[in-house]
Amino acid sequence: MSNPHRISENEFAKIVRGIVDDREAIIKHNPVGTREEILLWMLSACLFSYLSLTDIETPCFSSSVNAATYREAIGFILKDRKEEDFNHEKYLNELVNI
Question: What are the angstrom distances between the C-alpha of 87 and each of 23, 26, 79?
Answer without folding.
Answer: 22, 25, 11
